[in-house]
Queue: 4 jobs
Job 1
Amino acid sequence: MPSLDDLKKRIKSVKSTQKITKAMKMVAAAKLRKAQENAEKGRPYSKKMENIILNLTKSINDPENAPKLLVGTGKDKTYLCVVLTADRGLCGGFNSNICKLAKVNFKKIINEGKELKIITVGSKGLDQIKREYGKYLIKKFSFKDKKQISFNEAQIIGNEIIDLFNQSAFDKCILFYNNFKNVITQIPQAQQIIPATNESLEKNKENSFSYEFEPDEDEILDDLLPKNISTQIFKAFLENAASEQGSRMTAMDNATRNAGDLVDKLTINYNRSRQASITKELIEIISGAESL
Amino acid sequence: MKENFLVEIISPDSSVFKSETTEVTIPSFEGQMGILKDHVPLITFLRPGVIIVKHDKGEVKFFTEEGTVEFVQNNLLILSSTARTFDNLKKENIENIIKNTQELLDKDNINDKEKYLLSYKIDTLKEIN
């Protein structure tokens, strides 16, 4: 049985932990509102961009000569996986969920006998992945010192990926990030960005218009496809930022509640042992008086 | 008004501008292009220049460095990560931008297309200034 002093100290320490988690929850809630707004504002851009590419794809007459960024290299040998995570922890399963999904995919790629290359963005993902898959890592990014991630950062990564693609360093590129659904649900996602044609694009092939192209399809695609990659990365950034804050808020809310429960339990313990010691003292006094 | 159509300028982090308009002039890659209602469906991209949106009460101008334009069913969509109003542009010190761009232009290792884009950027900025 711990002494009264020990219990008192523990209650105090749990209470101060609770204060910290509560403060973190408040901060996350405030940041979440902004991040969520940004994510929602950013969605039209990437969606419209996808639409335009879809429309362009439909009007390409000669698929064999289409840009490789759109239709792929025709091979299926080397995979580049870009894992986007946060730079900070204490946000529940946010980082681990992304890494878990990524690792499942890594395993699959390796089991199929294909080559794997990894780029990590954010230090938390790097920590988790380098233990097992360190030898596949080719590049790591971290924007820890940036307060707000802007389109420029997405462009830096986009350009890096395109450079690698032009050197034929990989055939397919997959992006891993958390999609922000609402505050308590974030869905880890694997999105293929190179080649750009994918199922969702294939699905809605109806209502086509005959577009006029200025200058011509190929040149527009050459300009648009690299931009689309940066856009998709930026979208992933925004979704990730919102998810991180949402996830942290929920995690810290839980922590605060748990700390509250713990304080209650400890207080009962404390009161009980205080009462026990009082009773003990009384018994001692009474039995002392009786023996006289 | 029957002659109106919808124009929307979207940047990656927000919707910059959305309004009804009668005529929009865009700096298309191959030259200035005016768009009126019932234009044929069009996809093109931009070089540095000025987007002019005209409506009943006057006109609004935006500076842009690049962008992609889609016109379909009387909806004009301009996707650009660099579109901004002149007021916002002036806050950024145009002379500095011109100087930096000039430095880029003076480098030897740029190709014709980049040269073309950069020189347009300088010309436009000088005009605005």
Job 2
Amino acid sequence: MALTGDLSVFNFADILQVLAKDRKSGVLLVEWKDIVIAYYVKDGELVFARPVDKVFRVYTDRDFDKLLDKLRIKKEDLHKTIDKFFLSRIDNKEGIFSFTPGFIKYNTDIPVFYPVEELIMRASRVLTPEEVERKISDELLVFERNKNAEDILPKVKLTEDEKKVLELVDGNRSVADIRKASKLDSLTVDRALYGFLATGLIRRKKKEKTQKPSISLDLLAKIIERIKKL
Amino acid sequence: MKTIKKIKIVVAGPFAAGKTQFINTVSEIKTVATERKTTLDKEKDVKHQTTVAMDFGKIRIDDEHELYLFGTPGQSRFDFMWEILGEGALGIIILVDSTDPKTFHEARKIINFFHSRFPVPIVVGANKQDLPNAWSPEDISFALDITDEEDIPVIPLSAKNKEEVKDVLLKLLEIIREYIS
């Protein structure tokens, strides 16, 4: 299935979130205005990046180790390609992306210098107010920490401001309350919350369902049978 | 003369997600539509007509009951209609265009809107799965930030396909049944 889109409407924080959640492996291709870059993803982690002159070349190198040999890149230097071709472009939103799962054979011992959660937080720090509004759409939203937040926390290097915002997420305070209590500007707070959501540090607090459907089981069974026969 | 009891299901979703088509596919009556020409340039590029108040379709259950499918307008500037149409709904179907990731955030906002106001079962229909660049339901679920706790299934479909539209309706009804039992 395709995983394609435009960076202006689906940013790197969003893309990495999708890749990380399902621990996908494959190649993310981004066609920037000036260059095409292939980002290699293993189990949801971004492990390598390289520019390509012809897109088809990406699909001819199916063995990751052989590719590194061919390019004469040492495994301990892989992170430098993330610095050069990902982090330097993290705030550039003029590109078309497509992710192709599978097809490349990875060995198990590929070092991960930048955990995907760290990259998501970095991408969240350069979001525009319009982008932030897509996830933090309502100042009455209430968030709570995820059960596995403690496992994620060591992977992200939070800024002091972000730590302050995270401390205020308690399942009771709304976005408006957190903005007020943190004394930070709204964009900083909202970017932090966006990143926390995308990394899985926090989640939307579940509403208690109180409205029981006003319909009998017999009638519901009748509707189901009717729909089946349509 | 017997009074016919109306049962309501709301079909919501971003602009051009396929809500009108969804209702048309299963409705027994010709859908009562309130469509007007699109006025914004960016919307004209997508389609020429858009729903401005609501669509509705109807399925007769028996002599005393009818199931109404109400389609909301997609643009958030009509969200006052979402509030009106959500009142008294048995459940809500949120349709998304699986080929158009720029609308996924809008879909999440719509889920938040209905979730906070009408705590009834919700399902997401990942429409246009017949098109080659459609995102998979699993990826759409991740993109919409749907957590396990929210219990909102994402069901693949093409709104032109009657059996697939029925599958979405049946999934919602099954969740409602679990909820009542």
Job 3
Amino acid sequence: MKKLFLLLLLPTISFAQDDLLKELEKQDQNTDYTIATFKGTRLVNGHSVETKNGGTLEFIFAHRFGKLNEGLYEMYGLDQAYVRLGLDYGITDNLSVSIGRNSADKIMDGYLKYKLLRQSSGERSFPFTMTLLGGTAYSISPKRGNEPEGFKTVDRLAYTAQALIARKFTPSLSLQIMPTYIHKNAVDQSREKNDQLAIGIGGRIKLTRSVALTSEYYYRLDPPDNDLFEAGSKRYNSLGFGIDIETGGHVFQIVLTNTSSLTERTFITETKGDFFGGDIHLGFNVTRTFQLKKKDAK
Amino acid sequence: MRIILVFTLLLWAQVGKGQQRFFVDKALVTFFSDGVIEDIAAENNNVTSIFDAGQGEIAYLMNIKDFQFEKKLMQVHFNEKYMESEKYPKASFQGKIVGFNNTISGVQNIKAVGKLTIHGVTRDVELPGTAEMKNNQLLLKSKFTVKLLDYNIKVPQIVWQNIAQQVEVTVDFNYRPL
């Protein structure tokens, strides 16, 4: 009987300790998706896992000067400039498209970028973000009518496929690896292959809330024995460092890199500069984001 | 023996009374701030709250990342730079409602006294509001101002025109009895 009495008392005891907030916290089982692994859609020269959000348009003005070691005559590279003008648009939060025109080698490029997996914690936890990138590059050079013998229009095309895999380890440290496949329709078979593989690594360290250091390196996995760009000029792996500065809707990236190009086919497989030999290009990526579509009203 | 039984039953009745609880799990909290260049507004309709009418105790909890902005980039900046929501994922309030009588119909002026936690900073606050019993549901509304500095939320100088130093928070809870 005594036991029964205690049992009957039980509910009153359990209600005595009453921390409503703790009860709410117990119920709260959200999946927390990682945001802002990188500040921009580009790491240095290549892409980051970030895509534009649905309905946002980003204008990218990217620009590389000549080489620093060209001396005073070329004003340490400032006399030359290579420019890529581009637009990125988010169709959905996970799917975006971009187009651009690159003055180095006169290349038009287009990309489709899809965020397949998102890093998350909480109820459904996942360790990394993975974005798939498919790109096409069309070289306008050589000029029509000036093509060498036997040059066909399809020879102007090259393709890039990348799996961008990144993890935000802490709010200030993110790392990314980028297995890359590049196919070029026309190459000089004695110096390179049509299909080339590379693996990129990159990362960023946030210095303050608005300033971050970024870096990127692409290692070519199967360069040919005769790894020359043309007689006497070697090919190098591309390496770049950047400082991202973010203000409102703008991201400014100041970069130092050994390539003048901003399209995968060229900066991964046709980089001419030796970074440690002083072939360093100063450059800027400036982006401006516009919200084109407002979110649907509820 | 009979006395004990009566006593127990009385206690049970007490439990019943203590259980006058209200719950809501898709409640709305919005904030608004008029900046010089553009207004900033966001809403979170994923707020959970419990109100214990017997004790007068209330708590509500929200995830900072659930705040939706018209401009997605602003939402990213809000989370990453100002609220640091990876470090401080939640905001909450815990306290007591003063001046509520659930036997009166119509709108009553009430006050919530307790602790408001935003951006990892907890402060004692007194929030004004109204309560109304309507078809067995309880409507609680409140509007108050949050000063960013009070909660150690720093606005970078370079965008200072964009963001006012205080925001107006609106709370709109529509409880059902639990």
Job 4
Amino acid sequence: MFFHIVLERNMQLHPRHFGRNLREHIISKLMKDVEGTCSGRHGFVVAITSVENIGKGLIRDGTGFVTFPVKYQCVVFRPFKGEILEAVVSMVNKMGFFAEAGPVQIFVSNHLIPDDMEFQSGDMPNYTTSDGSVKIQKDSEVRLKIIGTRVDATEIFCIGTIKDDFLGVINDPTTI
Amino acid sequence: MSGEEEENAAELKIGDEFLKAKCLMNCEVAIILDHKYEQLQQTSDDPMNQVSQVFEKSLQYVKRFSRYKNPDAVRQVREILSRYQLAEFELCVLGNLCPETVEEAIAMVPSIKTRGRAHDDEAIEKMLNDLSLIKKFE
Amino acid sequence: MSSIEPFNRLVKLVARAFYDDITTKGDNQPKSGRSDNRGIAVVVLDALTRRQWVREEDLAKDLKLHSKQLRRTLRFLEEEKLVARDHRKETAKGAKIYSAAVAATADGQPFAKEGEEKIKLHTHSYCSLDYAQIYDVVRYRIHRMRKKLKDELECKNTVQEYICPNCQRRYNALDALRLVSLEDDSFHCENCNGELVAESDKLAAQEGGDGDDNARRRRREKLKDLLQKLEVQLKPLMEQINRVKDLDVPEFGTLQAWEARASAAGRAANGDSSSNDPNKSSQGYGGTPMPFLGDTKVEVAFSGAEGKQVDVKSETDSTPQKVLPPWMIKQGMNLTKEQRGEVKQESKMDGSSATGGLSDDKKSTVEDDKASLQDEYIRAYYAALLKKQQELDEAAKNQQESSNTPISDGLSGASSNRQVGMKSKREEVEGDDDVDWEEAPVAGTTSESFKVHDLNVEAEASAEDEDDIDWEEG
């Protein structure tokens, strides 16, 4: 799920940036430092939308650097266990399939794919029902439920299931 | 035994910080990111180079999975869903997935049927109807 | 004090349910024959239910265990959050404060002869049961066991596990990204590049299951079975947990607080008449008066002079549930006769074993039927024990008086009382035996449940257990 939240960060700035463009410098450095990062707590920082407040700078002892506390609004993407979302299948193999929902990757193991879907190898590996009516292959859109997340310093990885009611390939004519 | 505080979006256990935060539907994110991307285009020749991979992937994703494209419709969706005493998170799941039946809606957002909340099937049905109307007239 | 027995019973049940097969041997050492020390955790936990804070050296002596072995077990139990430990460097005097506390809890006369004090510091370790934490940990553990089985049963929220057939390394679905290979369709071991097998597939193959459906159905049945077994086998434990739910948790506090309290209580119980008291009174570590002085209630175990002991007993007798089984009465009488005849104050060992007897009795009444089954056997065993004891009695009678202060004796290193020390130790060991015997039915019912427990913790399991584990985790 995407959220619009307020975060805080202490920005250290070299004295050469001081002057009329101080604020711009701080903001552009903030964007460079923060956008695209991922933390276990807040998820992926997609985009900074505004800077709410830049606090008074504090000169660091021994160096000329000044630390500014900055409050900013940003869009983050944070997957949750139990969350249901839509994703695009990126790879299919006999162990299951991988899908992407924005910045996050989700693995669905073959045990969590409905029992009536079988793996078919070939150029375009896929999972298909016996009557061929439903097929999961690369670029398919699926609705899945996240059942587990693994968080490390720079990555969040999820595992999901499509073995439940109203999950699976999306039957929306507009998206096929 | 309920000592265990495990994250579970189905029970709206997403942590206080996110429970109180403003959630965004995919279509809203699309508008925000598009706007930001346009700004970048004005200042840079190669805006795709300026943005992170996270930004790029998110933009692709929300464009692909936005149920409503028109900003007015997006505004209306939030406006209508806001009448139903939903948590931000629930509101956005419904807005993103647009379930068609009451049963589906409950499967997508099990927390709307938890005890102590005044969502009977009728109310949910009405809510889904309102949503589909917006879609129709978009 | 009133609540400690139910909690002790809880500890004993937990010990038998979950720590039955724990061995502190390293994996590479053979687990057979004489080196097999499985069950040691049960012995240690049982022993701790009869003590409060205890110096680990003393406990090792009492249990006739090598102190290293005991320490290893205690470290394990500490990690399991059952046991609180404290280590401190102390002088001979520091050790004496503890001894005084022990003496007070045993209601013996504190042995407070101030010897010459060596400045040399020794690190001593102490341990005690942490009842509050045990209660929480056990509930959590059972909760996790149930949850895991139920999740598996519903086939929901299960994280698929993979295993490398070559090096047995295990992975799960959350590692998927690291395991994909560019060459083929499967996951590969990071270690040896072997092709990983999904856990339940392996199981299905083992069972000779061909059809996917069949395997799945069997798996479900097995899980259901497992869950049911869990409920049945843990029932006594659950009942005990519910029983202690609203009781005050016995709390010994930190070692220092306990010592201070125990000494103060001991003084209060002795009416402060003893001429020994001034020596140790109100001397904390820094010589400052202890804040606990005076107001402390006797929360200490075996404070009872004769009268109190009887009180407790009659109380227990009055409730219909708590009838003493015949073999137990024999023991109780034996002890009290011994004591009534010779001394007014109980020695520490006698006191503790008597109280231990009471607790055991309560426990055994709950499983009265089981106990009665074993009755015959135990009676025979006990007769033999009695005989042995009578032999010892003769020797004991002569020295009974000095046996009031066995611990202090040990500490001051007085060699003249050695025999007494040995005697009481012997009794202690017998006491342990006795508990083990009478617990046999409990151990019997829970003997299988360690398998269930194994599901949670990846413990080394004997080959026959493997099936269960696989089922559970697949």
